[in-house]
Design a protein that fits this description.
This protein is α+β, with helices and mostly antiparallel strands and 413 residues long. It has helices at residues 23-26, 30-50, 66-80, 123-136, 163-168, 197-200, 221-234, 238-247, 291-295, 305-316, 323-329, 401-410, and strands at 2-6, 12-16, 85-91, 97-106, 109-110, 117-118, 273-274, 283-284, 302-303, 344-345, 350-354, 357-366, 369-376, 381-387.
Length: 413
């Protein structure tokens, strides 16, 4: 598991028990960052030779600390993409965790590592892990049809869809965000309305993309049905089950998994920013109700970067699920129409490659928040980046400039 303690310099350290820039400038990859780092080393070497002359410059050179390197990468990345604010966490192969923040939550209030951000669809990783835990306990099977647990009165929902197909997006179910009544222009959204399950599968539904198992199409609908099944099986709520079965054993208590009640005073949520009318200027939209977002998953997932880094590192290091369950999660579909940047998708987990390095994890994006969390099994490194703004496609592409810079730095510490 993890032991969390304060370091001498005041940083939070966690040790894991398991072993406008132009578009061309945006394309910084691991290779190009390596080249920049190499150039910096050569320049430093040249300077160190020059100081042998009586110039008055100290001859000793103090290399930057790990925290300074990572903080510099975070700040440089945020500047490069013209972002508002960001919080990040990195766990390196020695098990140490760094957390940092840059930019603002709102005028006069900087982002801090303790602030919570909405993780969006990255919550699917938590939910899929909970489902696999229940499979381990024999409470259900991935091959069970949803009709075994739920009455299905909706004509566009096949009762023979399996739980596996709900989790790996092969159910064929319609994606409600594509319905014009739900996912229309930002200013037309009724943020105070939480659509009911019945409305989602009737009013916001449409013909399935394909028969169950007949293709791949990203859709939230399968996870909504999965949530109903888990709560039927456990007799409890999904947030409670995730906290008790997954997070408590890891000592993680900084996630906020439901906003049905007033936000506890110990939590501070970063404000989110959206270009609401297409004029190129982001506006603070934190005053909007979260009920509309709740329609999309039945749960709201908020986290600190450090807590989600601990979760991701533990999960993909083998500290959460049994080996067979983790293998099921990592059975990736290699062809994902519309998601070409992602090489494969399993059960609540995606795979992508950065300069040939394989990464496992998930991302999320909802109005005003962006979220990227991936683990490299090759390097034993986990990187989480949370942003409080909609990424500007003029300056960055998935998985994002900040993530690429932090991952490049983390793999060379």
């Amino acid at each position: 598991m993890f032991e969390v303690a304060g370091a001498a310099d005041g940083r939070l350290v966690a040790r894991a028990s398991t072993q406008p820039e132009n578009r061309a400038m945006r394309s910084t990859t691991i290779s190009s960052v390596t080249a920049l780092l190499a150039a910096a080393v050569l320049a430093t070497a040249a300077c160190s030779e020059a100081v042998e002359e009586p110039t008055g410059v100290p001859s000793s050179y103090t290399p930057p600390t790990r925290a300074e390197i990572l903080q510099g990468a975070l700040e440089a990345g945020l500047r490069a993409v013209h972002g508002v604010g960001a919080s990040a966490a990195v766990i390196t192969d020695d098990g140490e965790m760094w957390t940092g923040a840059a930019g603002i939550s709102h005028p006069g209030t900087p982002v801090t590592p303790d602030m919570l951000f909405d993780m969006g669809s990255a919550g699917k990783n938590l939910f899929a892990s909970l489902t696999l835990k229940l499979v381990e306990e024999g409470a259900l099977s991935l091959e069970d049809p949803i009709g075994k647990y739920l009455d299905i009165p909706w004509p566009n929902v096949d009762q023979n869809i399996t739980i596996r197909q709900c989790l790996d997006h092969t159910s064929g179910l319609y994606m409600l965000i594509e319905h014009p009544m739900f996912g229309g222009p930002y200013e037309s959204i009724d943020f105070d309305r939480c659509w009911t399950v019945d409305e989602i599968f009737t009013t916001l539904s449409d013909t399935p993309y394909f028969p169950p198992g007949g293709g791949w199409h990203y859709t939230q609908a399968g996870y909504i049905l999965g949530t109903l099944i888990v709560e039927e099986v456990t007799g409890s709520t999904t947030p409670v089950e995730i906290q008790q079965r997954l997070l408590d054993p890891l000592g993680i208590d900084g996630m906020l998994l439901d906003l049905s009640e007033p936000t506890p005073s110990r939590f501070e949520i970063a404000h989110n920013w959206v270009d609401t009318d297409g004029d190129g200027e982001r506006k603070d939209v934190s005053h909007h109700s979260r009920e509309w977002i709740r329609s999309n998953s039945r749960i709201l997932y908020y986290t600190r970067a450090g807590d989600f880094a601990l979760w991701t590192h533990a999960l993909f290091s083998g500290d959460v699920l049994q080996p067979d369950s983790l293998q099921e999660m990592l059975r990736f579909h290699a062809s994902l129409p519309g998601k070409e940047i992602i090489d494969g998708y399993g059960l609540g987990a995606a795979r992508l490659y950065v300069d040939g390095v394989e990464l496992w994890g998930h991302s999320g994006s909802i109005p005003g928040y962006g979220f990227v969390a991936y683990h490299s099994p090759q390097h034993g490194v986990t990187v989480v980046v949370m942003m409080n703004y909609d990424p500007d496609p003029r300056y960055e592409e998935y998985p994002g400039e900040i993530f690429l810079r932090l991952f490049a730095a983390a793999t060379r510490l």
